[in-house]
Amino acid sequence: MIETCDSPGLLPIQSAISNMLKQVTPVLESEQIELEDALARVLAEDVVSNINVPPNDNSAMDGYAMRCEDLTQSKQLQLVGTALAGKPFKEMLLPGQCIRIMTGAVIPLGADSVVMQENTDTEDGLVIFRQIPESGNSVRKAGEDIQQGSVVVTKGTKLTPAFLALIASVGIAEISVIRNIKVGLIATGDELTPPGEPLSDGAIYESNRYALTALLKTFPVTLFDFGIVKDDKDDLKAVFEQAGSHCDLVLSCGGVSVGDADYVKEILDELGTINFWKVAIKPGKPFAFGHLRGQLNGQMGNAWFCGLPGNPVSSYVTFEQLVTPVLKKLSGQTYLPTPHFVAKAACLIKKRPGRADYQRGIFYRDEQGELWVKPNGKQGSGIMSSIANANCYMVLEQDAEDVQQGEAVNIQPF
Ligand SMILES: Nc1nc2c(c(=O)[nH]1)N[C@H]1C(S)=C(S)[C@@H](COP(=O)(O)OP(=O)(O)OC[C@H]3O[C@@H](n4cnc5c(N)ncnc54)[C@H](O)[C@@H]3O)O[C@H]1N2
Ligand code: MOO
């Protein structure tokens, strides 16, 4: 069979992303939530600190605090007390004196340095210093992490575990975040059977929703799962209307190509608008983007719509490459293209011009530290193991041809 170039009429991936980002506007409504519930949420306002972190100069080591100038006279200082984290030594240290100090304890007035205990000896109420420190040795300065009045985390930041700790460190327990994006998810196909049930003739297990649901969980999303809808145009249309009535974004997978039971595009045409259909991406060509008008019990709504192809790898790749920018924009995050790294092809990588190809690969370093990449087995859009066992995409530009062994390849680590 002669394979023909399939680029005519396909929208280049960057044009598809720009088109979607131009249309979609961020959700503006915000809500106050507890910090402990804020993982993966997007900040609606800058977080400003009312305090210095740390609040006081404090010790970075268990050891002894002293004025380092005193050690120029004598290596021995008189031990006059102890400071623990949360239990400061409240007096002023006088010349010739030192105190025992633990990590995190406040540096007392009069002291400017700490020497860790491994570099000291003690004898009859004296501490003998084997290290002569510079001023400020092992002292963590007040405000060295965060200064009072400074912006700790900016509006639009998606909160990672480290940001949660940073906000907690300035004593804030409640924050203002953008409300969750309401996303509807629909799988369509007569052949789709939920895992756990017996498989009838010609059927397959539905698997895309498991990947898409898990991917969605990494975003600030409230998921409305509409399950599996049969290839019945009226049923599918009713579910689309229902999803469009209250979601910000509706995702379907399957039924978006040109087969006799592929109704997605037709329904989108009737219920809304199609901004584009068919992108120069492999896998994932029949991806559709548009707008869906919905209504349910008198409630009218307008949702953005992404029609993902049914092939398992196609739905996964189009989610990561095309839906992710939309979700980021909707939730008020700045969209930054995923960084690429360059590796050398460990073998010939087959590629036909026409679509940007997101092949699933395995990258590794050789003993010389050189970065290599090779395809992770068969690259068909139904071969989910190609992605599950891979560690990167090998991103091959739309017009690129075969990549020869040793040539440069852009990779996007997972
Ligand atoms: N004549 C043409 N045929 C096809 C074209 C084309 O351009 N001309 N494009 C091909 C490409 S590329 C893709 S990708 C697929 C996409 O088709 P659909 O989005 O309509 O997907 P379906 O036909 O419904 O399903 C495709 C495949 O995936 C399986 N599937 C569907 N949903 C799921 C699910 N939730 N979990 C697991 N597997 C699923 C389904 O059983 C099919 O095997 O169209 C090509 N055809
Ligand atoms: O784009 Mo399809 O996803 O090549 O099979």
UniProtKB/TrEMBL annotation:
UniProt entry tagged with the keyword Iron-sulfur: no
UniProt keyword Cell membrane, yes or no: no
Reaction(s) catalysed (UniProt annotation): adenylyl-molybdopterin + molybdate = Mo-molybdopterin + AMP + H(+)
InterPro entries on file: MoaB/Mog-like_dom_sf, MoaB/Mog_dom, MoCF_biosynth_CS, MoeA-like, MoeA_C_domain_IV, MoeA_C_domain_IV_sf, MoeA_linker/N, MoeA_linker/N_sf
GO terms classed as biological process: Mo-molybdopterin cofactor biosynthetic process
Membrane-crossing residue ranges in chain numbering: none
Cofactor(s) needed by this chain: Mg(2+)
Gene Ontology MF terms: metal ion binding; molybdopterin molybdotransferase activity
GO cellular component: cytosol
Annotated EC: 2.10.1.1
Pathway field: Cofactor biosynthesis; molybdopterin biosynthesis
Domain MoaB/Mog: 184-329
Family according to the record: Belongs to the MoeA family.
Primary role: Catalyzes the insertion of molybdate into adenylated molybdopterin with the concomitant release of AMP.
Protein name per its UniProtKB record: Molybdopterin molybdenumtransferase
Organism: Paraglaciecola psychrophila 170
Lineage: Bacteria, Pseudomonadati, Pseudomonadota, Gammaproteobacteria, Alteromonadales
